[in-house]
Write a structure and sequence with these properties.
Layout lengths: L2 H4 L1 E2 L7 E2 L16 E3 L2 E3 L1 H9 L6 H25 L3 H19 L8 H31 L8 H20 L2
Antiparallel strand pairs: 1-2, 3-4
Helix pairs in contact: 3-4, 3-5, 3-6, 4-6, 5-6
Length: 174
């Protein structure tokens, strides 16, 4: 038997010789493609298929995440100017509560990207609430000679902390 007949090449990197195989699909994989699992090495596609079992959210769950995040982003951003410094404490709680509401309304189903959809909707809701203030500031600043960006500092702090709360609840806290 010749030496070339026994040489395997990675299915992702055809120029890379290997002797390693995925223990699930038996495809040849190189060290870059191998993912170590408790039962041996697997290719990334097999690992992804195994992880997909845990993500069972439906499109309705994503719609719930959008609606809840839009409302929380809009209402929270309307309240921010009155709270000032205290938003540091309230922002993460609001985000965590929004994440919990999304999780409960979706009947505790998990989605791979539901956290990203929720943060995007939170950003859109917050932007819709802040847009009239930005337009008013632009009209005033046309006469004053500049835009006062510092007035939006707490708005940005609120959004970042609320988004972190949503991500922590929907992605990190399982």
């Amino acid at each position: 038997m010749s030496e070339n007949a026994a040489t395997l090449y990675c299915y992702n990197h055809p120029a890379t010789a290997t002797s390693l195989r995925c223990n699930r699909c038996n495809r040849p994989i190189c060290a870059k493609c191998a993912v170590r699992t408790p039962t041996g090495y697997r290719c990334r596609s097999c690992v992804r298929q195994q992880q997909d079992i845990f993500f069972n959210a439906t499109p309705v769950d994503y719609a719930v995440a959008i609606v809840v995040s839009l409302v929380v982003g809009y209402i929270g951003q309307k309240v921010v100017p009155q709270l000032g410094f205290f938003i540091i404490f309230i922002g993460p709680a609001i985000g965590g509560i929004a994440g919990e509401v999304i999780f409960r309304l979706s009947r505790k189903r998990r989605g791979r990207y539901i956290w990203a959809v929720a943060v995007g909707a939170l950003a859109i809701g917050a932007l819709l609430a802040v847009l009239p203030r930005i337009q008013a500031l632009m009209a005033i600043s046309a006469f004053a000679g500049g835009v006062g960006i510092t007035s939006f500092l707490w708005d940005v702090v609120y959004f970042v902390l609320a988004a972190a709360g949503v991500v922590a609840r929907l992605r990190l806290w399982r």
